[in-house]
Amino acid sequence: MNAIVTGATRGMGRAIARHLAASNYNLALCARNAADLESLRNELLAEFPDIRVLVQVADCGNARQVHEFAQFVEANFEFTDVLVNNAGLFISSALLDEQEDALQLQMQTNVFTPHFLSKFFGKKMRQHGKGHIFNICSVASLQPALNAGSYSISKTALLGLTKVLREELMAYNVKVTAVLPGSTLTGSWAGTTIPESRFVRADDIASAVINCLKMSVGANVDEIVIRPVQGQV
Question: What is the rounded average pLDDT of the residues 3-21?
Fold first, then answer.
């Protein structure tokens, strides 16, 4: 089995990649930093020597690099069973006060890249009558977040994309799942004094993805909402 994870070197992407490797998936991983990718590749192969780990630098805010990554995966994997659109961009700002390019930048990473990759690999999944696409959305897809205006717009659009994909692919036995995390303890919270117990852990998100993949062929989990027990921080 082969899986793609975008934004794989940090946070949720890294946790998902590790859980997939532990489940014996070959991996194709992308991120912006070559050294981080190579370090993760070496770490995974040391722990899980029976899998293949392919890495390529790709900034998911750069359409050309995303297209090149898709071609790279296609050249190396005969078929991709799982696509995890994890890479995301968060720019904190109220909508009326944000920079002029804030929406464009976040839409490129959070929507246009998953849109392209889902079409590119979704067509092949449709042809083979199998596969699973995961889009890592956000609770902001359901309720706009304060000081995250265009981010909320982009994540709402990503949830909409997920729903369209699900409708188009269900007749071909291809599964599509939206994962909507609340506040998750990743590197973006480095230095916080908020207790860990107030956060969802990245491993919780990864476990949810793996549990979906373990379900029977006839079961699709449409949406997974994972919030901190005590609410957003």
Answer: 97
